[in-house]
Amino acid sequence: MEEDLGMASIDYNIKIDVKQVSNDIYKDIFNKIKKAAPKIQRSLNAKIEDIVFQRLVSSVPTITGRDYYEMGVPDINERLQSIIRIAAKNFKIKVTPANILNISIEILEDDYSLLLSLPESVFPYISAKGSGILQWLKWILIEGNSPIVRDFEFTPTPSRFSRTGGGVMMRGGGWNVPSSLAGTSQNNILTRSLQGIEKDIESLVSQELQRIIT
């Protein structure tokens, strides 16, 4: 007699609530991020400062040639480098955990009040014709093409009276900042250097969040 060794068939029906699982995963991830919000803010502070600094250092132009002569500030590039170091720190980050994680990043103040308050932003001078203060940083950041000096214009004639050695101001129609340096609060040598930085910051934020949740 042969024994029937046929295998019994057993079916399992498991119902998975995908929506509930997704919600649970979301809550777990969000709780991790919420708890780590202060740490995220500290980390972003240091890394964004480095990104901004590298962008400014590599992209803000060195002022040379006629532009240098016209601006009339002998150490303008050294002053600009000092200002860049301060500008790289001139941003605000706020990480706010609410229903969603809100990360607010503001780079550079609209009125540039911090940068314009720096001693490097002005150049006091004394000449045979008198003395004064050149607000050179204000001119190139926010004055645009507005007239700076009336009744005098730049003449590119080497002179021992020239602070930069390449020309002097002579009576004429007027003078404004060279077009390559002229800027407004929304479009100047600093803002132009930071164009496209959003992608770098988005990538950084994504990496930081990924590090927290994994």
Question: How would you sum up this structure in a few lines?
Answer:
By secondary structure, the chain is α+β, with helices and mostly antiparallel strands. The protein has helices at 18-35, 37-59, 65-71, 76-87, 113-116, 136-142, 189-193, 197-213, and strands spanning 91-97, 101-107, 123-127, 130-134, 149-155, 168-175.
Feature tags:
single chain; 214 residues; alpha+beta; two-stranded antiparallel ribbon; two-stranded antiparallel sheet; 43% helix; 18% strand; disordered N terminus
SSE topology sketch:
Elements lengths: L17 H18 L1 H23 L5 H7 L4 H12 L3 E7 L3 E7 L5 H4 L6 E5 L2 E5 L1 H7 L6 E7 L12 E8 L13 H5 L3 H17 L1
Antiparallel strand pairs: 1-2, 3-4, 5-6
Helix pairs in contact: 2-4, 2-8
- Give me the Rg, rounded: 30 Å
Structural class: alpha+beta
* Mean pLDDT value: 85
Portion of residues in beta strands equals 15-25%
Low-confidence stretches: 1-18
Task: Identify the strand order in the major beta sheet.
Answer: 1-2
Distance between the termini: 61 Å
**What is the number of independent domains?**
1
Counted by DSSP, the helix tally is 8
Shape: elongated
Task: Report on the biggest sheet.
Answer: 2 strands, antiparallel
How would you portray this structure in words?
The protein is an alpha+beta fold and 214 residues long. It has helices at residues 18-35, 37-59, 65-71, 76-87, 113-116, 136-142, 189-193, 197-213, and strands at 91-97, 101-107, 123-127, 130-134, 149-155, 168-175. It has one domain. 43% of the residues lie in helices and 18% in strands. The longest helix has 23 residues, at 37-59.
